[in-house]
Write a structure and sequence with these properties.
seven-stranded mixed beta sheet; 30 strands; six-stranded antiparallel beta sheet; alpha+beta; 843 residues; 20% strand
Length: 843
């Protein structure tokens, strides 16, 4: 996405006009204009020159946002873009306007209504008073000339904006008052004192000046509040250190951070911020990563650990190698994500955009009709004009245009502060609308690393002896399960004995020789084929398997030494996070490649609604598509093989500690590897959506009530009449109230589940077991004829879980189709009961 800075926009009608103009350029596939940040994101093949030309033809100006390869200038450029330049300018305009406006109000209202004293020169000199009011009004108009330049320019381009409404209203009041002043002068020359007095009541100079002054006040309050909506993003930008301590030729030098290149060695002392992403070469410390992840507890770092730019080194001295620099650091990427999200537009904003596109012309037409209607009704020109001006200045397209982007910006900033990154405004909106959450098991629900869960020593041995035997054997193995046993032994402070003749055998087994004794280890099938095992051991094996654990058996000299069970344990926060999602009305599904028995055991512990087991890596995408037939789906994963599923889901959520490919494919990135951030992200999305709905409601209601009130429809019914000055005050406060309401999101507690409510689904999700089919091929000895085939086939198909068996005595095989997992032992026993022997089973 190419980003541009757009200048000259003042309301939603402006942003809608720019968006329409750029979208019409050949080669532009999508365009999104943000009134809040005065930015525009464009995708497509159109050149920057063509896009800028289209913006200028629409009556505005644009320039390409310059990107930089070094971190400091890149971030300072972004920070410069977000700098609040409006508020200081508007503050000066407001102070100057107020000075002359107060004098004008003293003359026009104070003296005339309450008899406040004036210099003797003005006594009974009504023309002089009129001229003074005209002069003061002209000064206020000159101070606020931007309204007129922008407004009449937009009318010239046939794309009227809010400034057009203000300038038309103020000009109408000024022109009518000036005409009245000339008429009064003529009456005074003719000596008609009664007519002179009557013309005094036709002056609306104070209304013209008040409209400009109050709307400048509202604009300043709005600009100040808008500045606060980007505080989170500006806070992130300030985190980046400006210098780094680099090792060059064995000496430490302090250099600007943009001079750090990949592969440089840098050092970080306690209390210093880490300048770029890197890997710790030596040293130990605790690093505060709350700026990136929202996690307040410091993370211990040692040799081999990764560190990120912008985080704070708290306790120790670290020597690191730079791995990511400039705009490639994690901090820069986070800032880019938040900035990109601000430049995109949520689908809900399209409603306001459509209204804004026709809003201002419609208001101008209503104002003209109002004036004509009151004149036809027999009212004076002054009365009719006052109603028309009130219609012009009370109508506020800004409130409509800001309703969505301010809430999106604040919500996105809140997420970034808590380690939850929404890549686009669309993802922030859609996350709260989803109904099904699909969770990858490994690394998402579980820790992703097998650990030892049970140790059962047999034949008089202690657990320590069992672990020593297992450690000696598994020390030379590269299997992931071996790593769990080795870590356990190292934690216990054991030393591995040296073994000889180490072999990794088919069937998940290991053998070696230790001090003349034979060591064996592996699966139940492997060990039971080498030594005799009791029914009690088999029962224990089945029990551990039912619990979702992998039992490993170890034997010494053909005698069973014990069982060590290994499992990928569930993260501490997973069950609670899943419960929170269910309490929010979401249907939680676990996807895993494990066999059904293991998957169900883990699913039961985690508390998910549905388990879909034996899903191959390339099959996750098709599972997501099936779930999408039931409702909108969030897919949460962390691995490379999750990327297709993350892309195909309505919303893809990547765990931050996962693979870069998964993060790139996702719509939402969780910087922490905590599943509890998933309900937090959904909660924040729902709160943002609610805030947008509130903003849009009040913006629409304000205009629906305000315009008829200003037009005078309630005068005959209720006696309500709105002065143009009060109308301008109402317009000023409308946008301010919308922005202020959005800022309330800063106080939202996204990890608080007490106020969660269930969404109402239009359909009923049924928990159903996905039917899986798999085949096993049995090599069978002893079958001689077709009768042998028939007996074997009948025995196998009688087993629970077997749907079909194709048996051949000629090839000595039986191909068994299974609808669920059936152990090899049960298949072997069924064949053995018919008098035959299974020599091998292949999946």
């Amino acid at each position: 996405m190419e980003q541009y800075t757009v200048t000259g926009m003042s309301c939603a009608a402006c942003s809608a006009r720019v968006e329409k103009a750029v979208s019409g350029v050949k080669g532009v596939t999508s365009c999104s204009v943000s009134l809040l940040t005065n930015s525009m994101g464009v995708e497509g093949t159109a050149s920057a020159e063509e896009i800028i030309a289209a913006v200028r033809d629409a009556g505005y100006d644009a320039s390409v946002k310059t990107a930089s390869k070094n971190q400091t200038s890149h971030l300072s450029s972004e920070e410069d873009t977000l700098k609040d330049r409006e508020t200081p300018v508007l503050k000066k305009r407001l102070i100057a306007s107020l000075g002359f406006w107060i004098i004008l109000m003293y003359v026009s209202m104070g003296h005339m209504m309450w008899g406040w004293p004036l210099p003797p020169f003005f006594n009974d000199n009504h023309v002089a008073m009129g001229l003074l009011q005209l002069l003061l009004t002209v000064i206020v108009m000159v101070i606020n000339q931007k309204f007129f330049v922008s407004g009449f320019k937009s009318l010239y381009h046939r794309s009227p904006n809010m400034d057009a409404l203000v300038s038309l209203g103020s000009t109408a009041a000024f022109v009518y008052s000036t005409i009245a002043l000339f008429a009064m002068t003529d009456a005074q020359v003719k000596g008609n004192s009664d007519e002179v007095i009557s013309y005094m009541h036709e002056f609306y100079f104070e209304s013209a000046a008040t409209i400009l002054t109050l709307i400048t006040l509202g604009k300043m309050l709005e600009a100040r509040s808008k500045g606060k909506t980007t505080d989170a993003l500006k806070g992130l930008m300030k985190l980046s250190p400006k210098t780094a301590t680099i090792l060059r030729d064995g000496k430490e030098i302090t250099a600007p951070v943009e001079q750090v290149t990949k592969g440089d060695i840098f050092v970080v002392r306690p209390g210093e911020n880490i300048p770029v992403d890197g890997t710790v070469l030596n040293g130990n410390s605790a690093v505060d990563e709350s700026t990136l992840t929202g996690e307040s507890i410091p993370v211990d770092k040692a040799s081999g650990s990764t560190v990120s730019a912008g985080t704070l080194n708290q306790s120790g001295f670290l020597r690191c190698e730079a791995t990511r620099v400039g705009e490639n650091t994690t901090l820069s990427q986070i800032i880019q994500m938040v900035s990109d999200a601000a430049a995109t537009k949520a689908p809900i904003a399209k409603v306001a955009d459509k209204v804004s596109g026709v809003f201002v012309p419609a208001v101008i037409i209503i104002a003209v009709i109002t004036v004509i209607a009151w004149l036809i009704a027999g009212k004076t020109m002054g009365f009719a004009l006052a109603r028309g001006i009130s219609v012009l200045v009370i109508s506020c397209p800004c409130a409509l245009g800001l309703a969505t982007p301010v809430a999106i910006m604040v919500g996105n900033g809140m997420g970034a502060k808590n380690g939850i990154l929404f890549k686009t405004a669309v993802s922030l909106e859609k996350t709260g609308r989803t109904q099904i959450v699909a969770l990858d098991k490994t690394g998402t629900i579980t820790k992703g690393e097998p650990t030892v869960t049970d140790m059962i020593a047999i034949n008089g041995r202690s657990e320590s002896e069992l672990l020593s035997i297992a450690y000696a054997l598994e020390k030379k193995s590269e299997h992931p399960l071996a790593k769990a046993i080795n870590q356990k032994a190292e934690q216990e402070g054991l030393l591995a004995d040296e073994v000889e003749d180490f072999q990794a055998l088919p069937g998940n087994g290991l053998t070696a020789v230790l001090n003349g004794s034979t060591l064996s280890g592996g699966s139940y099938q492997f060990i039971s084929g080498k030594i005799q095992t009791s029914d009690e051991i088999k029962l224990k094996y089945e029990q551990l398997s039912e619990e979702g654990k992998t039992p490993l058996f170890f034997a010494l000299n053909d005698e069973l030494a014990g069982i060590i069970a290994v499992a990928d344990t569930i993260k501490e926060d997973s069950p609670c996070a899943i419960k929170e999602m269910q309490n929010m009305g979401l249907h939680v599904v676990m996807l895993t490649g494990d066999n059904e028995r293991t998957a169900k055991a883990i699913g039961a512990k985690a508390g998910v609604n549905e388990v879909i087991a034996e899903v191959l890596p390339d099959g996750k995408e098709s599972v997501i598509r099936k779930l999408q037939q039931k409702g909108k789906v969030i897919m949460v994963g962390d691995g490379i093989n999750d990327a297709p599923a993350l892309t195909s889901a309505d919303i893809g959520v990547a765990i931050g500690a996962g693979a870069d490919v998964a993060i790139d494919a996702a719509d939402v990135v969780l910087m922490k590897s905590c599943l509890s951030d998933v309900p937090a992200a959904i909660r924040l999305s729902r709160a943002t959506l609610k805030n947008i709905h509130e903003n849009l409601f009040w913006a629409f209601i304000y205009n629906i009530i305000g315009i008829p009130l200003a037009a005078g429809l309630f005068i005959n019914l209720l006696g309500w009449q709105l002065n143009p000055m009060f109308a301008s005050l109402a317009m000023s406060l409308s946008s301010f109230s919308v922005v202020t309401n959005a800022l309330r999101l800063n106080f939202f507690r996204m990890h608080d589940s007490k106020r969660d409510h269930k969404i109402k689904n239009k359909f009923k999700i049924t928990t159903e077991k996905e039917t899986k089919s798999m085949t096993k091929t049995l090599k069978i000895e002893g079958m001689m004829c077709e009768h042998c085939e028939m007996h074997t086939k009948k025995a196998l198909e009688a087993l629970d879980g077997v749907t079909k068996a194709e048996v051949s005595h000629k090839t000595g095989t039986a191909v068994v189709t299974l609808e669920k997992d059936v152990s090899d032992d049960i298949l072997k026993q069924a064949v053995a009961d018919q008098g035959y022997k299974v020599t091998d089973i292949q999946c």
